[in-house]
């Protein structure tokens, strides 16, 4: 009988992008500004779509849902990156990694599905006008 590896993995060590403090400060501010621009821009699209009655058409309904999915998708990735840069804690548990991957795949799948529905809506609007 051969010996087997009996190591149980309970956490992952995320090495990050850089070890230099100056570059990490720059990366933190860059990621934070990109995240805030993304969230605020998508919230603006959602609020304009809801507030204007002329935009209550299927295309803008799908666009508002796509903006919401984009907020959810970026909120899955960027806060973890910001936390790892700010706290210098590069450890992620196995359960946290599985949860992170679940939501990452869920929102990317929903994005793809919503883009497919939007393209079909445009196909119907162009090829079969009322």
UniProtKB/TrEMBL annotation:
The answer on whether this UniProt entry bears the keyword Membrane reads yes
Q: Which domain of life is it from?
A: Eukaryota
InterPro entries per the UniProt record, alphabetical: GPCR_Rhodpsn, GPCR_Rhodpsn_7TM
Q: Where's it found, cell-wise?
A: Membrane
Question: How does the protein's chain sit in the membrane according to the entry?
Answer: Multi-pass membrane protein
Q: Name one Pfam family in it.
A: 7tm_1
| GO MF term set | G protein-coupled receptor activity
The segment(s) forming the G-protein coupled receptors family 1 profile domain are 41-130
- The keyword Repeat belongs to this UniProt entry's keyword annotation: no
Q: Where are the transmembrane segments?
A: 26-48, 60-82, 102-120
Matching PROSITE patterns:
G_PROTEIN_RECEP_F1_2
Identify this protein by name. Olfactory receptor 7A17
Tell me the organism.
Sciurus carolinensis (Eastern gray squirrel)
**Record lineage:** Eukaryota, Metazoa, Chordata, Craniata, Vertebrata
């Amino acid at each position: 009988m051969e010996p087997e590896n009996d190591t149980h993995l309970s956490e992952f060590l995320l090495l990050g992008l850089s070890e230099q403090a100056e570059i990490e400060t720059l990366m933190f501010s860059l990621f934070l500004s990109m995240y805030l621009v993304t969230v605020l821009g998508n919230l603006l699209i959602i609020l304009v779509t809801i507030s204007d009655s002329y935009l209550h058409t299927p295309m803008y309904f799908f666009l508002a849902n796509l903006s919401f999915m984009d907020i959810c998708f970026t909120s899955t990735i960027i806060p973890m990156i910001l936390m790892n840069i700010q706290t210098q804690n590069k450890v992620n548990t196995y359960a946290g990694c599985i949860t992170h991957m679940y939501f990452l795949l869920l929102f990317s799948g929903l994005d793809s599905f919503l883009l497919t529905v939007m393209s079909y809506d445009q196909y119907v609007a162009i090829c079969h006008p009322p």
